[in-house]
């Protein structure tokens, strides 16, 4: 299976459960976006499958709609299970229920790094990070519009962030 936002989200949930830490839909969303940004900056590699995934500027920061819709049932409560997807098997003419897994070692390394960096941040702290002046969200957000955040904006921002981290 290709890397996509849901496989990244499921891996964050796995890491949270291994560390015994709660993760909410909002916190998950911000961490998936951060992993996508760091991956673009460090590897020039997207963690999104652009056939299905894209990033939008919503009121509380960057949102990947596929992740939002998969976990919105949790509201502000901790996520307890990974999401599944349903695929149609034309050969057997039946549905297959699949848990998206992140199997790419580079992607797993990025997600682990982001988890270790941000696992102790609250949801509001994660939102604040994405709302800073000059962030891709700040450049794209218009109330009620859900504008798309281009990968080019995200990559440029995270390249600068990586330089700041390395130089401190």
Automatic annotation (TrEMBL):
This is DUF4065 domain-containing protein. It comes from Bacteroides fragilis. InterPro entries: SocA_Panacea. Residues 28-137 form the Antitoxin SocA-like Panacea domain. It comes from the Bacteria.
């Amino acid at each position: 299976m290709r890397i996509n936002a849901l496989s990244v989200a499921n891996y964050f949930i796995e890491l949270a459960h291994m560390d015994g830490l709660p993760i909410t839909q909002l916190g998950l969303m911000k961490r998936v976006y951060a992993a996508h940004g760091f991956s673009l900056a460090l590897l020039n590699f997207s963690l999104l499958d652009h056939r299905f995934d894209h990033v939008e500027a919503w009121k509380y920061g960057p949102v990947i709609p596929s992740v939002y819709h998969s976990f919105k049932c949790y509201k502000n409560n901790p996520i307890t299970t990974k999401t599944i997807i349903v695929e149609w098997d034309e050969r057997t003419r039946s549905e297959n229920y699949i848990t998206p897994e992140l199997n790419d070692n580079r992607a797993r390394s990025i997600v682990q790094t982001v988890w270790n960096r941000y696992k102790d941040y609250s949801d509001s702290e994660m939102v604040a990070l994405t709302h800073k002046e000059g962030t891709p969200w700040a450049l794209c957000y218009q109330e009620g519009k859900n504008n798309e955040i281009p990968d080019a904006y995200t990559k440029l921002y995270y390249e600068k962030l990586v330089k700041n981290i390395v130089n401190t």
